[in-house]
Design brief:
Helix 2 packs across helix 7 and helix 5 packs antiparallel against helix 6. By secondary structure, this protein is α+β, with helices and mostly antiparallel strands. Helices cover 44% and strands 14% of the residues. Bound molecules: flavin mononucleotide. Flavin mononucleotide binds at residues 9-10, 12, 64, 151-155, 175, 186, 189.
Length: 202
């Protein structure tokens, strides 16, 4: 695990090895063990793999052409602005699997019903971004465990992404991740020391 974490680097050029959909979904499932706010799991993924899909993405990318052209797949992570609609499904499944008492499910669902949801509020959007960040971090490490490398890509026009890629406007585009077998070593990058940026509150 330590090797996986310490030696991860953003890789921007990949060999022509194709990751199967089965393995891609396996990695997504593994990374979905990441925590999410209220366990509402608001992320929805869009896989860009075919030539046609890559050409749709090209005009809204800011640089990042090497990842576009060589990655086995690029995954667009989006956040569902109506994440609460899945609450019933998620908690009912937990009850059916015997890991949540029925009364806890009802208590949780009542709690969500009483919250005012404004998907345009900064708080709501921040929570989608937080969940996406936690997922992305898991995914990049899971990919390495499978022998692949990744690059997180924020350099794309999020305002045009839904229309250009034909994605429902309820899904907020957050981050692209390219994935594949590396064809370069990537760059070393430095990190600030924890001792320089950590403060203790008295
Ligand atoms: C939110 C986010 C957006 C990023 N966007 C891009 C990008 O558009 N293009 C790119 O080549 N790298 C991008 N990166 C990768 C960073 O440049 C990289 O993580 C950083 O330089 C540290 O290098 P390392 O990942 O190799 O450790 C992004 C990283 C993050 C976390």
């Amino acid at each position: 695990m330590k090797e996986i974490i310490l030696n991860r680097r953003s890789i921007r050029k990949y060999s022509d090895y194709k990751i199967s959909n089965t393995e891609l979904y396996e990695m997504l499932d593994e990374a979905l063990r990441a925590p999410s706010s209220g366990n509402l799991q608001p992320l929805r993924f869009f896989v860009i793999e075919s030539k046609a899909a890559r050409e749709k993405l090209r005009p809204i990318l800011r640089m990042n052409v090497s990842q576009l052209e060589t990655a086995s797949q690029l995954i667009l992570i989006t956040g569902d602005k109506h994440k609460y609609q899945m609450a019933e499904t998620i908690f009912s499944r937990a009850v059916a699997e015997g890991i949540m008492p029925d009364e806890v499910k009802h208590r949780q669902l009542d709690r969500f019903k009483n919250i005012h949801h404004d998907p345009t509020s900064q708080k709501y959007i921040s929570s989608l971004f937080l969940d996406a960040g936690l997922f992305a971090s898991h995914f990049m490490l899971v990919a390495r465990m499978h022998g692949y490398d990744t690059c997180p890509i924020g350099g794309f026009n999020t305002e045009l992404a839904n229309e250009t890629l034909g994605i429902d406007s309820n899904y907020l585009p957050i981050l692209l991740i390219s994935i594949g077998k590396k064809d370069e070593e990537g760059y070393q990058s430095i990190r600030l020391k924890a001792s320089e940026i950590t403060y203790h509150i008295d």
